[in-house]
Write a structure and sequence with these properties.
mainly beta; Porin; about 425 residues; 4 helices
């Protein structure tokens, strides 16, 4: 059945391509620099009289179906209401998904169609290119991803965590971002509650290639922070990050005296290669005292081809797993390979090794991105996750993850506006 569904999705995608529908490049996931604001801002391509599809995605330009695609640009609620020169932007998306079994992280309500994320954002981006400017960002969401999007590093009853935001059956509300921004020339500063810049995958559905998430993203990285983060991009090929936060995953709260450094750098020697190092160090709040870093190497060796190598390390002095140890230490390596046959069709793989407290877990995912019109993304996938040490031995499954149970089929449909 799963293979039949995938074949049907693939056939549908190629059928769409054959009707000459085209739109802009896929918005990649680059942490805090990507964000939901770019989701509705899809880039367009010029129409070509006789497109040569053998040239790849950069040359695939055809006449779109204007009514459905808005001449290839997609529809933006903010543009339709406020116009192109609007000082304030707003938008969002809805992600409806299905998973055949729980992955143990995010997709934990199997066997039914879930509203994973119904998302709204309001923002004004601070543009310092002409001098001093100010901005802000506010996000709110509802869905089954709410429990993993709330500030669960808080003390109960603070901000959106354990404060009446849950609605049963896995559903609830979250306010993952609320921050102010100042900018002057190459310097930018945000302060408040914001998504972490650490890692490759992010919480927001449209900015990830895969429907499911990596172990590393879920168990070795923060999701949000409360604090301040400065960015300086005045050096050629180098961007610097530095700031302070009140621990991991806090929303205007300081659990267990959380106080830590957040920062690092990004080097882009050529347009096709970037190297990012970001770290946290100090009192990380509910997770304990310690240090973490994430290294992401993002490359585009050929047109349409994207290879990403990520390695994360975390070491804290707290029994996060509840196994009786006095520490929690993880290391992992993630590899992503994604190829866009056309802008509308992408295929990808992810392979991960993740090792918490000396027990190795593995995960492999194959999936597709299908975009029949600019405001719709379809992400079918097959996922396998296993641990030799935990196979038929729950006592050694220290992370409590479902393993060695065969393929997990998942798929979601994202509607952006």
């Amino acid at each position: 059945m799963v293979l039949n569904i995938l074949r049907a999705c693939t056939a549908a995608a190629f059928a769409v391509a054959s009707t000459d529908i085209a739109w802009g490049q896929y918005v990649g996931s680059e942490g805090i620099e990507t964000g939901a604001a770019e989701v509705s801002g899809v880039q367009t391509q010029e129409a070509a009289e006789e497109p040569d599809r053998s040239l790849g995605p950069d040359y695939y330009g055809t006449e779109p179906i204007k009514f459905l695609s808005n001449e290839g640009k997609g529809y933006s609620a903010a543009e339709m209401i406020l116009g192109e020169d609007r000082p304030i932007n707003f938008g969002g998306w809805a992600s409806l998904g299905y998973t055949s079994r729980s992955t143990g992280l995010f997709n934990t309500d199997p066997g039914r169609i879930n509203n994973n994320q119904s998302w709204l954002y309001l923002e004004k981006v601070a543009d310092g290119s002409d001098g001093f400017d100010w901005g802000f960002r506010a996000d709110a969401m509802y869905g089954t991803d709410s429990a993993d999007t709330q500030a669960f590093g808080n003390l109960p009853g603070n901000w959106d965590f354990d404060n009446g935001f849950d609605r049963g059956s896995g559903y609830g509300f979250a306010i993952p971002q609320l921050y102010a921004q100042l900018a002057y020339e190459d310097f930018s500063l945000i302060g408040g509650h914001f998504f972490t810049p650490i890692g490759y995958e992010v919480v927001t559905a449209p900015t990830n290639f895969f429907f499911s998430h990596a172990f590393t993203m879920y168990r070795s990285e923060p999701f949000t922070h409360t604090g301040a983060l400065a960015t300086y991009s005045g050096f050629e090929m180098l961007t610097l990050y530095g700031g302070w936060t009140a621990g991991w995953d806090t929303g205007f709260d300081q659990n267990d005296g959380g106080s830590n450094f957040l920062g690092g750098f990004k080097v882009t020697p050529i347009d096709e290669v970037s190297f990012t190092y970001l770290a946290t160090a100090g009192n990380l709040g509910a997770i304990g005292d310690g240090y973490s870093h994430s290294i992401v190497i993002d490359t585009k060796p050929l047109p349409g081809l994207n290879y990403v190598l990520q390695s994360d390390y975390l070491d804290v002095n707290k029994d996060v797993l509840g196994t009786g140890s006095d520490y929690y230490s993880t290391i992992g390596i993630n590899q992503y390979l994604m190829y866009y046959i056309y802008d509308e069709i992408g295929v990808g793989t992810r392979f991960e090794w993740w090792k918490p407290n000396n027990t190795s877990y593995y995960e492999a995912t194959v999936g597709m991105n299908l975009k029949p019109i600019p405001n719709i993304i379809i992400r079918p996938e097959l996922r396998w996750q296993w641990s030799p040490a935990a196979n038929d031995n729950e006592a050694r499954n220290i992370a409590g993850l479902p393993v060695d149970e065969g393929a997990i089929f998942g798929m979601d449909v994202i509607f952006t506006f």
